[in-house]
Predict the structure.
Amino acid sequence: MVGLEIEGRPILLVNIDSRIYAHLDACPHQNSRLSEGTLTDRILRCSRHHWEFDVCSGAGVNPQTAHLTALPVRIEGDDILVDIDAVGPFGPAAKGEQNQ
Ligand code: FES
């Protein structure tokens, strides 16, 4: 799990079983950096008030009404390409795949 800034936007990248997931690196609760939280298997726990999310689906675990902001991602060679202008329910990318 890593937090980046791309063109001024906080981006969270997570590798789960060699699949890359991209989300805005901002907790839907109060915008804390999710990359400062902890990741256990596929559950990301925000460091601030401990909301939890499934990073593969983006769905809230606690509370279930919350949701991460997913970004489309694809891998080209050694590059991870994230469309920071699009938001929506996008899936992961693995080498040679596109998730849009
Ligand atoms: S800011 Fe993440 S749980 Fe409150």
Observations:
- Residues 27, 29-30, 32, 46, 48-49, 51 surround FE2/S2 (inorganic) cluster (CB under 6 Å).
- Strands lie at 2-6, 9-16, 19-24, 38-40, 43-45, 52-54, 60-62, 70-71, 73-76, 79-82.
- The chain has one domain: 2-95.
